[in-house]
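Work package 3, deliverable 3.1, input record:
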Amino acid sequence: MNLDEPTLRHAYETMRLMRVFDETGRREFLAGKLPGFIHMYCGEEAIAAGICAELTDADYIASTHRGHGHCIAKGCTIEDMALEIFCRRDGLCRGKGGSMHIADLKKGMLGANAIVGGSAPLAVGAALKIKTRGESNVSVAFIGDGASNQGTVFEAMNLAVVLKLPAIFAYENNGYAEMTGVDYHCGSGDIAARAGAFGMPSHKVDGTDYFAVREAMAAALAHARGGKGPVSIECVAPRWYGHFEGDPQGYRTKEEIADLQETRDPLALFRERAMATSSLTEADFTAMDAAITERIEAAMAAADKAPLPEPDDLYTDVYEVYD
Amino acid sequence: MAKMTMREAINQAMRLEMARDPDVILIGEDVAGGRGCPVDDGEAAGGVMGVTAGLYSEFGAARVIDTPITESAIMGAAAGAALTGLRPIAELMFADFFGVCFDQLYNQAAKFRYMFGGQHGAPMVVRTMVGAGMGAGPQHSQAIYPIFAHIPGLKVVLPSGAYDAKGLLIQAIRDNDPVMFCEHKMLYGEEEEVPEESYQLPLGKARVVREGGDVTVVALGRMVQLAAEAAATLEKDSGLSVAVIDPRTISPLDVDTILDSVEETGRVVVVDEATPICSMASEVASMIVSDGFSSLRAPIRKVTAPHTPVPASPTLEAGYPPTAAKIREAIEAVYNYR
């Protein structure tokens, strides 16, 4: 897959935004500034970036609790996301969703989802809307390896096959379901094969390789947009951090994580290949990195100072009207 | 005005709304029936109780969607489609099955509007069957709707007859929030006068079934008929003037209509077929005690099912839901309390 320079720049910037957003968010969380839980996407950036690269605002994604990367890839503004993880009045969900529920419907982002496996049936519903209206878009469910064992996911895959819906099941196999390894929790040991057994084309790719993910997604899009029904893609990319921030990760070694950062950093792998195949230089990447860090620091600082929700906001938006 | 069964009235409400709005779809198990069978003409079932008969022939497979037996996917697909612009009617065949799909309703659909800061809700209707009376046993007979009413973001409708069912369902389909529409299976064959044309009844507005100054009876769903029967008998036999109020929707609940009547009577019986603990009967009683305490002249009596599962044995099941006789007894007890 050969991509032109602006495309390469955009892809890198998208992944770099994810990396810095989460690492900066982590710092703010550890400083006690963010409520609740935060789940780091570091190590998996190439998945969201590759899956969403060719999607438009008219395509849908339904996300997971580890959803910041998906939001960024789908075009949510990081300033609005920062406001939401700080639970501020002007956040994407007016502070009522927080990190695990960021949604931006005008961008086709149907919400991060704190129920493991909860998003797959919803993505199928968006695909049903697409088919009912005769549109040519697709709907993507991001599903972790842990969620891959949920009945909701099995039901969603089967219904998508039965109704021949333009749904794409993007599995993110990051090696761990909370504190349990994929070799234990996935009975068949092969998420892609299991998805394929539901009766859809199924790909398995290295999720740290942006180009591999994007290529598999291109094939999936051709299939789904062509009215041939759903597709699944399993992307393997181990996470660098714990299940949630604060997870002491007693179930894995420091060496494993150091090795991942050394040899399977999706951003480093991308830089290497982009520099080999385009005129982009080390200096270009350094400049992009600096600009992104500056933008995210500004967004976090602004969010930290932004107005809190009004006390009466507690009661709004339960129903459209309830009198 | 023509007589129509509640089954026909509900069918007609869906037909009118589907004809009016292309975004209204129907999704569920065997809503047409016969898919993948040797005889697949789209009219094999029309729903297990025949409520959706004819809709497949009229609106086609794209809008009358038979699914596998897959309640989570049905509810989730309806929620996702609603979030993105359709107005699905999703059938949860028996309300008892909520246990295998409730996450998609209470954690997803019900919370979208709030959790997403008001961006969009889930304008969907879940039509589902409730109630005892068919000998269908513990997992097909429950009046489980108080659990739905407990969830902020869900609305819950309990029609007591054909006329209300039609107007409330049309309103529910047009409502922009998720609505649980609970149909008592023993009312499907009951007839009432129902206009052929479309009409809407507001959600959250009770119907005063009969006026009365001595005792207020608040009755839900199928119990409305029995309460009215008990009230009529008492009026004839003892000259008691008994008000019967049908809230029609339990979320939102028309508190004002209930309290207005209680202010006049000071004596209250609440009748529901659901089990008594953490129930709508408890909720209505508690609301009256909190907001109408100064009007009360007697302890509130609840007439409900016992706190047991619903038995299959018709002999035992006959003793399960409230009866007109039990309601009459409770009315007399609160009336005679001094």
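Chain A touches chain B through 49 residues (CB under 8 Å).
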